[in-house]
Amino acid sequence: MAPPELRYNGQTVVVTGAGGGLGREYAIFFGSRGANVVVNDLGGSFKGEGQGSQAADKVVETIRAAGGKAVANYDSVENGEAIIKTAIDSFGRIDVLINNAGILRDVSFKNMKQQDWDLIYKVHVKGAYKCARAAWPYFRKQKYGRLISTASAAGLFGSFGQTNYSAAKLALVGFTETLAKEGLKYNILCNVIAPIAASRMTETVMPPDVLEKLKPEWIVPLVAVLTHKQSTETGSIYEVGGGHIAKLRWERSKGAYLKTDDTLTPGAVAAKWKNVVNFDGAEHPQGPGNAMEILETASQLP
Ligand code: NAD
């Protein structure tokens, strides 16, 4: 038997950066499953230069031609209020926000200009914040919201020539983890994905035969599941691409305990280093270590 078709009838979904790449696929999907879609795109180059309305308009036309409901918005994500206003003015509500817009300014740290750093921060971090900030009061009031933000393997693991992008993308992990905690009692679920897919962002760095196996539409089903009303998943990080979906979590070694007196010296730390870095019996924490428990154990050392 075929699995059930997830639907979003009557819901409003805002997808930022939906004029191309992954965002376009999300928008077309939600438009085909009963949602009202706000197709936001500034329409510039992948380096964040220029702007235009064509990219968003084309996606809106595609959704409407297939019988769906969509409107375009051409604001930069830095003006999140205007994007969410388009959703409210056009459809009267917002249920799902997908923070997807992004650009690259790859350059080695040695050669990075202030503008490369600032622009990446503005689009990825400030943009995601501004859109979420504008949607949040609606989510809280209706006790329903689904938020996806887009990180990257570059943020999780580091990537040569991408200090600006890595920093911004990992910021969205912390952003999501905290919003998940704040949103929980209002049924606002927040998750973050690190996708890998063929798009204008990756077409210059990967060979065509690899890109062929990384279709952007294969990112959509995970996002669809996480944003569906039946989902209960929140505060999670996923890697997704090429037909593989995996959840990531933090790992904390059991660590070393040192007596909290004048014996806590650099030499004492060095002597216990193998405990600090030994992951045998590690835990998977959802919060910081319990300070009282740590102090208690340390104070009981012989
Ligand atoms: P893409 O360049 O095809 O799409 C990004 C879209 O965002 C573009 O249409 C662009 O016009 C739009 N955009 C850029 N700046 C904007 C702004 N200020 N306001 C509104 N729209 C803006 O790239 P993509 O690969 O589809 O990337 C989508 C997201 O996924 C990005 O956040 C990217 O960093 C992330 N990502 C992609 C990959 C990948 O393998 N493709 C890997 C990791 C992360």
Automatic annotation (TrEMBL):
<comment type="subunit">
    <text>Monomer.</text>
</comment>
<comment type="function">
    <text>Second trifunctional enzyme acting on the beta-oxidation pathway for fatty acids, possessing hydratase-dehydrogenase-epimerase activities. Converts trans-2-enoyl-CoA via D-3-hydroxyacyl-CoA to 3-ketoacyl-CoA.</text>
</comment>
<protein>
    <recommendedName>
        <fullName>Peroxisomal hydratase-dehydrogenase-epimerase</fullName>
    </recommendedName>
</protein>
<comment type="similarity">
    <text>Belongs to the short-chain dehydrogenases/reductases (SDR) family.</text>
</comment>
